[in-house]
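Q: I have 162 residues here and want to know how they pack in 3D. Can you give me a structure?
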Amino acid sequence: MTRVELQRWFDSLAPRDQRILRVGGIAAAVIVLVGVFLPLQHLVNAAGKRVEQKQADLAWMRAAAPSVLAAGPGPSSRATADSLVVLIDQSARESGLAKSLAGSQPSGSGSQRVQLNAADFNLLVAWLSRLSSQHGVKVESATITAASAPGVVTATLVLRAP
């Protein structure tokens, strides 16, 4: 239907019907504005505030980084071979890998071979990252193979104390 035909049809309506269509059109526009655009505006404002907060956090982290690096690793990073076994066991339990920890045995001076079965890959990576950053433990070697379920792995790791 063209604009001219639509105008002819509208003009052919009774004045009461024309008034109802006008009011209905305005009401529909208000409903769309209130129901769609205002919530979207609220979401955009909230996202902007989150970005500002994250930028402030990043600026603080960048400012604090030199002092954290200057402080060096904490006292827990000076683990001996004996305490490495305890550290591996405790931190694996804290990281949710206790059921997956199949065993640990010495593997040379200051290192431990650790076997994990049916371990959640994300938990494993987070655990290794925490061992490295908080305790200075290094991964000398790692063999990680996929298990039957997605995101589940079997891993053999050689970890060395600093």
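Q: Anything worth noting?
A: The chain is about 60% helix and 20% strand. Residues 75 and 111 are 18 Å apart (CA to CA).
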